[in-house]
Amino acid sequence: MSSPFEALFDDAPCGYLTTTDDGRITRVNDTFLTWSGHRREQLLGSAFGRLLPVGDRILWSTHSLPQLGTTGSVSEVVVDVVGADRTRRPALLTATRVPAHDGAEAEVRVIVFSAPERRAHEQELVTALRRVEEAEDRRVAAEADGQRRALQDPLTGLPNRAGLAQHLGPALEGPVVVLVVDLDHFAVVNESLGAAAGDELLLTVAARLTGALRDGAVVARVSADEFVVVERCTDGEAALALAERVLAELSAPVVLAGLEVVTSASVGAALADTGDADRALQDAGAAMQRAKVRGRGRVEVHDPTTTNSAADRLRLLGELRLGIAAGQLRLLYQPQVQLRDGRVRGVEALVRWQHPTRGLLPPAEFIDVAEQSGLVRALGAWVLEAAVKQAARWARDPSHPTLEVSVNLSARQLTAPGLVEAVTAILVRHRLPAGLLVLEVTETALVADPEAAAAALTALKELGVGVSVDDFGTGYASLTYLQRFPVDELKIDRSFVSGLGVSDGDTGIVRACVQLAHAVGVRAVAEGVETEEQRQALVEMGCDVEQGYLFSRPVEAAVVRELAAR
Question: Which of 457, 453, 497, 452 is nearest to 473 (CA)?
Fold first, then answer.
């Protein structure tokens, strides 16, 4: 570089590095050295990836570098940079690849922004923009009818609940479908990524809903994370198709706070051909609640022959409370199989409810009611006690293979006082070695209260109990979270495993999850394996363990011995 450019390079207000195509640092400016504490002679010739912690290094090499090679640039990649004192400094990386020309070799130019400083500046701009918007709103409000403002959601510009009521009157003069759309785990976005990210998600959802509908359709935001859609429709098949199209639109990834987040929604649909707007909304809302109970991320259509009112849920809650006390719960066990040798290494305990009149109920029929009421703690305590008792029987039988037993732990259980003491007492009571018990927690449970979750999991780990992150890939747990928690395995969600060999996106997500698990030194477990093609793909990726119908459905305890001896 000529001397004027050298001066600009060194005096830039942000960190600046250049590297070869294989990542060796060739130049670094004074700003970066001052910020990071490193010495120039230590960095020149070293690998750029050494400046990143292992998780971010994997992200950089598997995502950013391929994009750099394809498009020539990446922007604002969120990472930590390890300083000379080994502390992590939040940073945003923007990189450009300059091809070889005029005899000069290709190089990669990396700009490093201090994330706190950049975000503070952006927040100042956002604050300034909001002040301008507020001033404009006041001017418009002075000229516009006050009633109009009362009918509009200020964030998205969509009708609010009051505005929806006005639109529903004319809309229900003919046959329509009413959709109630509730964003799954929206609170987690606000808590883990911030309120600005939550607002950005709501704006994205509003835009996607509006874009997916025909002219004349109504879209309203009626609460923090709930939207209503009304569109002309004459039959149930068309209503279901519309609901599934809406679900697909909202399941596409969205970039929030520099991270690509996979979102989902629970959608309830109801056909209406009368002017009873309240009844149509009630029916669609009941269907939406049923979608949540049955696992979220799905569509349910209102069935006029059934109801799902608050009274029904209250009745179900009372029956469940009695059912736990009366011994109506039972456990089934689904084997977990090592992919390298086909050996059954453990089982997951799965609860069922033998309802006196409705028969054997899967957890989707009652878990949501239990979680909302707090009864999930009593339910979880029963499952843990029963699973440990059965595992202890197997462990004491010298002819039975030694198996780990995995038990799901709800978010309420994870942060409840006395969890570790309760687990210890159960292990002692049944004389089960702690190493044969694995507790599964979801990503959502981890990020809801990270400090409490970390404390509980650390104490359980010190006890010798294994820890598994369930449904991995569906929530918002970052690399930083995973490095904070004492985790033994990641369970890749079945929704991605089902797409192996069918969807390039799902295949890439599964491969990235396996690589991430190994990068942080834990097992990768694939849930919902149903075909030999999926199994072979997992073997090629280096996945450690499979679980799913391909090997076995959940079975009674007496059948486990036979399966483990295969």
Answer: 497
Q: Are 517 and 55 in contact (CB under 8 A)?
A: no
One domain for residues 415 and 397: yes
Contact call for residues 525 and 544 (beta carbons, < 8 A): yes
In a domain, 48, yes or no: yes
β-pair type (344-355, 404-408): parallel
**Residue 130: inside a domain, yes or no?**
no
Structural Rg of the chain based on CA atoms: 27
Rounded Cα distance between 451 and 107, Å, is 42
Query: Rounded to an integer, what distance in angstroms lies between the CA atom of residue 189 and that of residue 443?
Result: 12
Q: Has residue 307 got a pLDDT over 80?
A: no
Percentage helix, strand, coil, to 5, in the chain? 50, 25, 25
DSSP code of residue 100 = -
Calculate mean pLDDT across residues 520-547.
95
- Cα dihedral across residues 392, 393, 397, 403: positive or negative: negative
Q: How many domains does the chain have?
A: 3
Collapsing DSSP to helix, strand or coil, 194 comes out as: coil
Task: Tell me: pLDDT of 426 over 90.
Answer: yes
Strand ordering across the sheet containing 15-19: 25-28, 15-19, 107-114, 88-98, 73-82
- Same domain as 195, residue 268: yes
Mark which of 308, 334, 366 sits at the end of a domain: 308
> Who's near 399: CB < 8 A, 6+ residues apart?
none
Same domain as 376, residue 498:
yes
Instruction: Give the residue from 119, 136, 156 where a domain finishes.
Output: 119
Indicate yes or no: pTM above 0.85. no
Specify the DSSP class assigned to residue 153.
-
CATH of the domain at 365: 3.20.20.450
Higher pLDDT, 473 or 43: 43
* pLDDT score recorded for residue 2: 47
Instruction: Tell me how many degrees the CA angle 239-240-245 measures, rounded to the nearest 5.
Output: 100
Q: Are 108 and 165 contained in the same domain?
A: no
Domain assignment of residue 7, given as a range: 3-119
Counting every residue, how long is the chain? 566
Residue 10's region, left for phi above 0, alpha for psi from -120 to 50, else beta, is: alpha
Round the average pLDDT of the chain to a whole number and report it: 86
Q: Which two tokens stand for residue 510?
A: 């599964």
